[in-house]
Amino acid sequence: MAPVKPLSASVAQQLTSAISATLPETTDVDPLLRRSDRADYQANGILALAKKNKANPRDLATDVVANLTTGDVIKDVEVSGPGFLNITITDRAITETLAARAADGDRLGVPLKDQPGISVIDYAQPNVAKEMHVGHLRSAVIGDALRGMLDFTGEQTIGRHHIGDWGTQFGMLIQYLIENPDELSAETDTDGEQAMSNLNRVYKASRAVFDADEAFKERARKRVVALQSGDKETLDLWQRFVDESKVYFYSVFEKLDMEIRDDEIVGESAYNDGMPETARLLEEMGVAVRSEGALVVFFDEIRGKDDKPVPLIVQKADGGFGYAASDLTAIRNRVQDLHATSLIYVVDVRQSLHFKMVFEAARRAGWLTDEVTAHNMGYGTVLGADGKPFKTREGETVRLEDLLDEAVQRAAEVVREKALDLSEAEIQERAAQVGIGAVKYADLSTSANRDYKFDLDQMVSLNGDTSVYIQYAYARIQSILRKAESVAPAAHPELELHAAERALGLHLDAFGDTVFEAAAEYAPHKLAAYLYQLASLYTSFYDKCPVLKADTEEQKENRLFLCDLTARTLHQGMALLGIRTPERL
């Protein structure tokens, strides 16, 4: 099936031809189309063209209209204000375009990118031997949505989960385990909660000994050296911590309804062997210099409070490597071995300065070029109802599992209250889909760089901008389609459309443009906003346009067709965000 040209593109093409006929010498014509409350589309580029050509805007707009042919797509054009063009689309064009989209299966007529690239997305980065908390939520949810949108446009995405599995704390953990070999079970746990319980116990016990016993502290430091030098016994024990932690990670990501592939978990340790070469290359190229025994990169424009340049430390004076070395080594791997054309980092906005320096160092070294972009998608903080970072009543960081469990529990109350013919098992299944969807949508409907308040009452509300509102709109449509029984959805381009049908149809036609825009700008909130508006327009259509009690059989079929395409668009759009749409609620 060939991609479907959106109506906006058809209108823009005709307008461009009309403008070119009016101003033959004009180049780079842009009609600047946008949706308007006063018309299906409004062209406001005439003002800029008039200024450029020293013409009266209204006179120029009138001349453009004279060169514009109405008919199959454009029904009517009127000049308004200082020189705007208000454009009305024909009912037939709307229905025929939607019919073409409906015939294209899950893609809904949306084309693939002409020149797709390879995007490596660094997201969902928990730490080995530590519990995941609310601070890990946004990276996972945003990164997963980015992959969904980019994949849909035809981009090849590769996930990288840069887990914290290396560093000085492992010397403490491993040394404790050597001296207390029975603290971890002989076999790796297959239960996530049990795995985390074991790791927590070992971590707390080893920390207590580390803080109280200087001799143990020294042995732990020597164990770090053994780990970094590749000592077999040390590495074997380190691997046990990693394996136990992965069991736990998978259990949490399963609750989040996210698929995490084992081959995409490439932590800090994976770059250990390449860091000496990274340091050597940077020093040989003159990108990094020695300062007080350390290997650093300086940036004239990045200065501290004392007005001295803030360095990016590649190698410490004692020979150890920091985060910059592993991040730069990761860039080399992702560009040279994975052939990435885009690097996307979904990390806390507080790391923005670090990545700004890392990216600039990589550019100076030639590892990032004009053909490879690097984008730090810094995200804001999850706040509590008091507007402060989300904590428990005791002031502790909220465990991510607890937060997700509570969301599902609250969703179960909402589903149970609405459910008329669902069994308890079905209620629990829907509760998981609604609760997790509510958490994800609240995150994704907010611009990533902004903080947002975690308010479960609002998240699971049936009213307002929530995933539950969208999910119920989808379920309502499925109910109508089931009640239609033998009457099948069918497009009837010959029918005149109600204003609510037109508004719904034009918004359905904008799905592809919205996905491409959201993917190009790494902005899942734009797709979330589109889906909420689609559900709202459907609600208006449902209130004003009887479906099963339509005036004629053709009108019933056409309205069922609009219902069906709306449902498919909601389903596909929510799937790109990683949110399920239950058939019945």
Keywords:
585 residues; alpha/beta; Gyrase A, domain 2; four-stranded antiparallel β-sheet; Rossmann fold
Number of helices: 20
Helical percentage: 40-55%
> Strand sequence of the main sheet, in spatial order?
1-2-4-3
- The CATH architecture term of the largest domain is Orthogonal Bundle
CATH 4th-level superfamily of the largest domain? Isoleucyl-tRNA Synthetase, Domain 1
Largest sheet: 4 strands, antiparallel
Structure, explained:
The longest helix is centred in the middle third of the chain and has 24 residues, at 232-255. The protein folds into four domains: 7-89, Arginyl tRNA synthetase N-terminal domain (Gyrase A, domain 2, 2-Layer Sandwich), CATH 3.30.1360; 118-163 and 269-376, HUPs (Rossmann fold, 3-Layer(aba) Sandwich), CATH 3.40.50.620; 169-259; 402-576, Orthogonal Bundle (Isoleucyl-tRNA Synthetase, Domain 1), CATH 1.10.730. The two termini are 33 Å apart. It has helices at 7-22, 46-52, 57-66, 91-102, 137-153, 169-179, 192-212, 214-229, 232-255, 275-285, 323-336, 352-365, 400-418, 424-444, 456-459, 467-483, 499-509, 511-520, 524-544, 553-576; strands at 33-34, 41-43, 74-80, 84-89, 118-122, 156-160, 289-291, 294-297, 312-315, 342-345, 373-376, 382-383, 452-453. A four-stranded antiparallel sheet has the order 1-2-4-3. Helix 7 crosses helix 8. The mean pLDDT is 92. With 585 residues, the protein is of the alpha/beta class. It is 51% helix and 9% strand.
